[in-house]
Amino acid sequence: MKTLTKTMKAVAISNYGESGVLKFTEVEKPKPTGREILVKVYATSVNPVDYKIRKGGIQRGVDFPQILGFDVSGVVEEIGHLVTDFKVGDEVFYLPRIIGWQGAYSEYHLAEESIVAKKPSNLSHTEAAAIPLVGCTSWDALIQRAQIKLGETVLIHAGAGGVGSFAIQLAKACGCYVFSTCSSKNLDFVKNLGADRVIDYKKEDFVKIIMNETNNLGVDVVFDTVGSDTLTNSIEAVRPSGRIASIVRVPANLEKAFFKNITIHPVFVQSGRQKLDEICKLIERGQIKPVIDSVIELKDIPKAHEKIENGGVRGKIVVKVA
Description:
Blueprint: E1 7-13, E2 23-28, E3 36-46, H1 48-54, E4 66-67, E5 72-79, E6 91-94, E7 108-112, E8 116-118, H2 125-128, H3 132-145, E9 153-156, H4 162-173, E10 177-182, H5 187-193, E11 197-200, H6 206-213, E12 219-224, H7 228-234, E13 238-246, H8 255-259, E14 263-266, H9 273-284, E15 292-297, H10 301-310, E16 316-320
Parallel strand pairs: 9-10, 9-12, 10-11, 12-13, 13-14, 15-16
Antiparallel strand pairs: 1-2, 1-4, 3-5, 3-7, 3-16, 5-6, 6-8
């Protein structure tokens, strides 16, 4: 007797294009083996990397039909025979691997045990799904690469966005003085996140303000989430031998960095449990809180892609799956 293949609902793309290429489909439900974990997805989110892959801006490791979605909060459904740190029923959250793996716009997601972490006890699944990608990105940029220290000055661009809103809280938890740029409508919002000095990038020159308020020394660290001219101009706002971490591939003129001995760190986020465990401690102590723009259903993912592309999103757009 032939065994029927179990399936699950998902949102996937079969070719690159605009938001209309996102289609509801049914795909085979994964089966964990070895050190793999199958997670019932309660919530995921929409991030800029999703639409960049959808439009063909990132093609490495894409295998059509490709499921997007790079945040997971859910419950362990099944485990491989070599899994030792989790059991069925555990509440978990994590950042799926972005290259070469299927994402989380689906009812279930398969992940390696090494990238999965226990969900913060004080967050719902909806709240927890707003954390992994922006948390790991901020951790990689500020902690691992720029290695921020107590008492340092940090400039975080686009402080109202998903990554920026988390990075501000992380830098403050590390005891830094934080400058942040945003639009005028988000000034109070970014200040309430903990930024010490908020700069309206449309009306103010962040370089002049920073140099004036640091006695012409510049900041110790810049976290660039914008690229292009913003990254180029940021070099002037960094002290000699300072550091810049950037998550944007947009080309910039970096010549001035040479003469100031500035270290520039390109950052492509990596999945991993250890940093999520550390972030979990900060969340459970109340030092970092999820920032959620809106909560949507799977059917609304195409509209969420459009909203993020158009800009103006505060924090994260979370997708409720179960």
